[in-house]
Structure formats: structure tokens, C-alpha cells
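Curious: why these numbers?
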Amino acid sequence: MNLTPKQLRILKLIRDWRVLHGYSPTMQELADEIGVSKVTVFEHVEALIQKGALTREPNKARSLSIADGISVPDESRPLRFPLVGKIAAGYPIERVAGQDEIDLGEVIGSTTDRSDSTFALKVDGESMKDEGILNGDFVLVERTEVARDGDKVVALLPDGSTTLKTFYKEDDHIRLQPANPDFDPIRVKFCTIQGIVRGVVRQY
């Protein structure tokens, strides 16, 4: 897909905003981030919709989303993932608003392929230790809103906190299961899946 640098930046902003906040940015928020007028952002967004890279629901302020099958690469940094905060592997904690990056080239010193839909979180807590996910580890998370029983997921809870647990769909609720007998399962009627853990990185 032939995208201008500005259009690619808008796609990246929308992608990362949805991960950080759980919803899409408004046109004004995009304009503020990029440093252009709202009209200019609107023109870029319309072009991205025409190219099939974005979708939008009419008459909604936060309806922008990346179209199915569209990846948003960071071509110049193939081993870097957006580090979007900490994830509770213990009791749920509030989402971290700050954003940084984890560079696997620095952490593991080797070259690996990656999915363009992956981000990183730093683990805070010991509730997943029996799965080998320890306090201070980095988990690599594939963005998805769908999980199956047994998947280790990043889940946004109804109270706005986020946690890392193993997902199970039960008769009338969802059970988010820790991997440490010192912690109780979290049971909720619903939650928003933000991603599935695909790997763990540990520094010594």
C-alpha cells in the first residue's frame, strides 16, 4: 500500500492510542499529536479510508480503527516494540499512560522476525510465576480482541484496570486465572481483551 510518511504516522498513532487507552483518538487529538490542523488530519484520514487502511463508523467521535489485514511496520527499527507500560501479574493496576520502547536488539543481541501487531509490557507482580512469567520480565503481546481458553491475555477490566492472567470463558462469567496459589482468580461478567502473550524476555 502506497502511504505517505504522514499517513503512516497517523496509522501508528491510532494503533498505539488504542493499545494505551482502549479507544481511538479524535481528529483533534491526532492533530495535536502531529502538530497540524484538524482539517489536514481529516484529509489524511479520508485518504487512508479510501486506500482501505482505515475504517470509520459514521457519527462517532472515536470510531477510527486499522482495517483488517493491515499491518503498521516500523521499518527502520525491526527489533523495537512499543513499551506501553506495566501489566499487573498480581492485583490489577491502573494502565500506564507513558510510552517508551523495548529494543530486543539491545536486550538479546540477535535478529528475529516479528509481527507488526506486537507490543511489550513490563510485568509487575508474581501472580504468573508458575507459568515462568516473573516480576520485572517483559512480555511480548500480540494485539487481538479475541482469546481462547488457556490463552495468557492482557485484559482490561470493567473498573479500568489491566491485568495479565490466563483466560477461561465459563457459563456466566470470565475467569482470569493466576499461576500462583497465593492469588485468587478474577471473575468478571465481561472484560476487553487487549492482546495475547506470545513471548517473555528476561534480563539478568
